[in-house]
Fold each of these.
Amino acid sequence: MSLALRFGALRHRDYRIFFAGQFVSFIGTWMQNTAQSWLVYELTRSPAWLGLISFLGFLPLSLFALIGGSVADRFNRRRLVLATNALALIIAGLFAVLIWLHAVEIHLVAVLVFLNGLVNAFDIPARQSFLVEMVGKEDLANGIALNSAMFNGARMFGPAVGGLVIAAFGTAWCMAANALSFLATILAVAAIRSRAPARQEKAPLRLLQSLREGAAYIRSSQLVWGVLGLVAVSTVFGWSYTVILPVYADKILGGGAVELGQLLSASGLGALSGAVFSATVASRFRPRKILLAGLLIFTLAIMGFALSRQPLLATISLALMGLGLILFNVNSNSALQQRVPDHLRGRVMGFYVLCFGGLMPLGSLQIGFVAEKLGVTLALLLNALICGLAVFAAARVLVQMRQRPVEEPAAASPSPINGFSIER
């Protein structure tokens, strides 16, 4: 199979430019994430504080992701992405300056992390919805998988580079590098000639009615709300493991920032493998099976990670954890985007962001405080148990769905309702 067929999204000029800019930006993001975790741990030496700071970073997604999705349906998505990246650049630059001036304290870290999360609440739905304008529906699934491969390729390199930079120069330089990396996305998006769908004049937007339209569509589709439910479980009890990696690197492995970077990079390597698999091979299999297989792989791997006491075993386990979660996430995102109608895409992706990033605060708090009280090992094992139960429950529902015809959800018709037109 030729590369053009295997990576169909790369046929599109706009997507190639976007891909390159985002890759540079995400390397900077992962450098900052590594530095931020290590900075918080240096300031507090507390798993609970790690959980609380992560909670504050994702709290805006819980509060504003649905609004962000509605905004992405209403306004020019390209301009939204430009604006959010400019704001993120300013926040990262301010973070670096505070550290250089030795003025950083834990409460200032909390404020900056919250502000960055607020920007993400509008950036993520806009970027997710913007993708279809660059590649069209035909190459949408491939574009989503390549996006994940790009993100996790950066996740493989960023933490490793970040750990070395922290050890050699300090955390401020990681924040500065991230600020500069946002320029890559800004320049890339500015060069894009997206094929935004024509938008008709509408009555003034009624936000609550807009959100109700999205919620009604989700309720009408067992597949959509079922996938969103699994995404919620994987967020709270799956992705939350990243919060306590600084404690694991310190207390279990006896390492420091370099070891933390290596652990995060191992997870990124596995995630990159899962994303490449999704972009090249996954189309031969049923997405529902890949969702469950990915979550099952993660469940078994996190159990191995919890019981590991050697760096090699921990690294292998983390790679498998990254592989499993990305197999799940890429295919859940693709399943949703392929199913939803264009005029509801931003709102449904807003709910997706709520279930994914918006529930991260809950996951961060629970694993941080459980690790504080019971230790890292028990916290990880409890999360693995809950993910395993979710896989079992979802498998039973899948069997039931096979035994009856699946009804197509009623997509909202392009008609005004209570003054809000859902026509795009």
Note: Residues 200-205, 405-424 have pLDDT under 50 and may be disordered.
Amino acid sequence: MADIRLSFSIAMVAAVVLGELFSLIWYNLLFRRDYGERNLIMAILADVGLAFILNHIMGQHWSVRNIEDAVWLSIWLGCLYICLESPHHLWHQRDLTRFLIHALHKFGICFVMVFSLDYFKNY
């Protein structure tokens, strides 16, 4: 059976903070949405979960040695999101733009978190 160890580090705190900062900038400044459209507590909890998952992927399955590795990991995770969620979100042609914006956000948040986990791993 697989053994998963959860560890807490400064890199994970930085990943959660920078990931949430990226999301706030993405949705509130770029698309002018209100805070009420996003539950901040659930967003932070989701960021914590994503940081643990990304940390496990980077530690066990995908080593990140440079920025290109972080980009490729984020691209593959973004493609995974597209494949899993597109049947549920694409009903009309105009939905494609909104869905691609969300998929680009998923790529961006994964990249920010992977890069910060790699950059702050020695602190």
Note: The longest helix spans residues 95-119.
